[in-house]
């Protein structure tokens, strides 16, 4: 499935060739597809390893960032995160960085894997709190790859989010209340930018990046959006979860109304841009975005 015009083809034959050239001791291990997102394609390697291949050259930059920073952040965090074990180098066949990690057992957070959504929301808040408290370790937002847009202010995104909102009107039509979504986006824009210090950000704490085990939160994966910046956008994915998780998360972090309003604006932004960009290529991801936007609308109507 091709999602981007500049996508780099990857399949099992390619992965085998990369392993034979760079880690021959792993080249004959069983290799099975382990999912594909908007940025990476993944293969489970044997019982204990995971290969991640970026879809585009820009995504390769994200993997290099993970290789550098995840081993340094892991000791400070309350849940397992990916542990890189090989930094794959570019080749003629695959001209960007790729990576191998330790396999983490678990299943995507969802109704079949989470028993208590209030406890899940509180545990997710605890992870976010600890991540945001980690010392910056000498890193700044100006460092390579750590300046992702979601750690900045809302205003620089207004032009392309307005275009995405208009695109949603055309594509989704009356099935989506885009006028209310635009009002919620502009409510965030009307607020001052955050005034607090920059912190470490995961950047994309949606269900597919949270692994559950024994009914609760077990691990946090996919740090491709790792950045340094303001924390508001970090909270945007909480609308991907049931209302009881959202309430527990809010209470645990004691978020103020301004932070919540900006976080909701970020949630709108990511949702409408996903619908706009992937409408014709990734229906499953569009459905995820639609579900988030519907939850935002339901939540706003109840307030």
Secondary-structure map:
Blueprint: H1 12-22, E1 31-36, E2 40-45, E3 49-54, H2 57-73, E4 84-88, E5 98-102, E6 107-108, H3 117-133, H4 158-172, H5 178-189, E7 199-201, E8 210-213, E9 216-220, E10 227-229, H6 243-253, H7 257-278, H8 283-302
Antiparallel strand pairs: 1-2, 2-3, 3-5, 4-5, 6-8, 7-10, 8-9
Organism: Streptomyces laurentii
Protein name: Phosphotransferase
GO molecular function, one term: transferase activity
Task: Estimate the global geometry from the Cα principal axes.
Answer: globular
| Beta-strand proportion | 5-15%
- Runs in which pLDDT lies below 50 for 5 or more consecutive residues are none
Domain count: the total is 2
Count of helical stretches: 8
The CATH topology of the largest domain: Aminoglycoside 3'-phosphotransferase, Chain: A, domain 2
H/E element sequence: HEEEHEEEHHHEEEEHHH
* Rg computed from alpha carbons, rounded to a whole number of angstroms: 19 Å
The CATH superfamily name of the largest domain is Aminoglycoside phosphotransferase (APH), C-terminal lobe
Whole-number mean pLDDT: 93
GO molecular function: transferase activity
Organism: Streptomyces laurentii
Protein name: Phosphotransferase
Keywords: Transferase
Structure description:
- InterPro entries: AGP_Transferase, Aminoglycoside_PTrfase, Kinase-like_dom_sf.
- Residues 31-266 form the Aminoglycoside phosphotransferase domain.
- Pfam families: APH.
- This protein is an alpha+beta fold and 303 residues long.
- The chain has 2 domains: 12-102, Phosphorylase Kinase, domain 1 (2-Layer Sandwich), CATH 3.30.200; 110-302, Aminoglycoside phosphotransferase (APH), C-terminal lobe (Aminoglycoside 3'-phosphotransferase, Chain: A, domain 2).
- The protein has helices spanning 12-22, 57-73, 117-133, 158-172, 178-189, 243-253, 257-278, 283-302, and strands at residues 31-36, 40-45, 49-54, 84-88, 98-102, 107-108, 199-201, 210-213, 216-220, 227-229.
- Strands 1-2-3-5-4 form a 5-stranded antiparallel sheet, sandwiched between helices. Strands 6-8-9 form a 3-stranded antiparallel sheet, with helices on one face. Strands 7-10 form a two-stranded antiparallel sheet.
- Helix 4 (158-172) packs antiparallel against helix 5 and helix 4 packs across helix 7 (257-278).
- The longest helix is centred in the last third of the chain and has 22 residues, at 257-278.
- It is globular, with a radius of gyration of 19 Å.
- The model has no long low-confidence stretch (mean pLDDT 93).
